[in-house]
Amino acid sequence: MGKRFLSRPVATVVVAGDSMLPTYRAGDWLVATRVRKIAPGQVVVIERESRPGMLLIKRVVRADGRKWWVEGDNAALSDDSRSFGAVAAEEIVGRIRFRYRRA
Questions:
Q1: Is-contact 81 71, C-beta < 8 A?
Q2: 16-46 as b/e, with b when 16 or more CB fall inside 10 Å?
Q3: Residue 8's pLDDT band (boundaries 50, 70, 90)?
Q4: pLDDT band at 52 (very low <50, low <70, confident <90, very high)
Q5: What is the mean pLDDT of residues 60-85?
Q6: Residues with Cβ < 8 Å from 8, sequence gap 6 or more?
Q7: Distance separating alpha carbons of residues 101 and 66, to the nearest angstrom
Q8: Please, what sign has the CA dihedral across residues 24, 26, 29, 34?
Q9: What spatial distance separates the first Cα and last Cα of the chain, rounded to whole Å?
Q10: Domains and CATH numbers, the chain
């Protein structure tokens, strides 16, 4: 979905899992847009090169050289930069703007 995600200005994403609790929970519907500028604090959609087609929703924590350190809000249940390292800017395919349906 990552490449197709980039071709549309707005997309919907459904949360799967609890890595972003308490901010977002499984089943929440989110609206995402293309990323113009990445900044700490943003919640973003990531498609890792090593896992094409699988989207992750994480919060940008900080720049790490030319890459970005991302973490889930629920550290106990998140597969994020603490386990796979910083992500390239090209792997950040969208930015969450708001939740429009809560699970």
A1: yes
A2: ebbbbbebbeeebebbbeebeeeeeebbbbb
A3: confident
A4: confident
A5: 96
A6: none
A7: 34
A8: positive
A9: 22
A10: 2-101 (2.10.109.10)
Contact 74, 82 (CB under 8 A): no
Q: Which residue has the higher pLDDT, 52 or 91?
A: 91
Q: Are the C-beta atoms of 94 and 32 separated by less than 8 Å?
A: yes
Query: CB burial class (10 A; 0-12, 13-18, 19+) of residue 49?
Result: exposed
pTM over 0.85: yes
- What's the mean per-residue pLDDT of the chain? 92
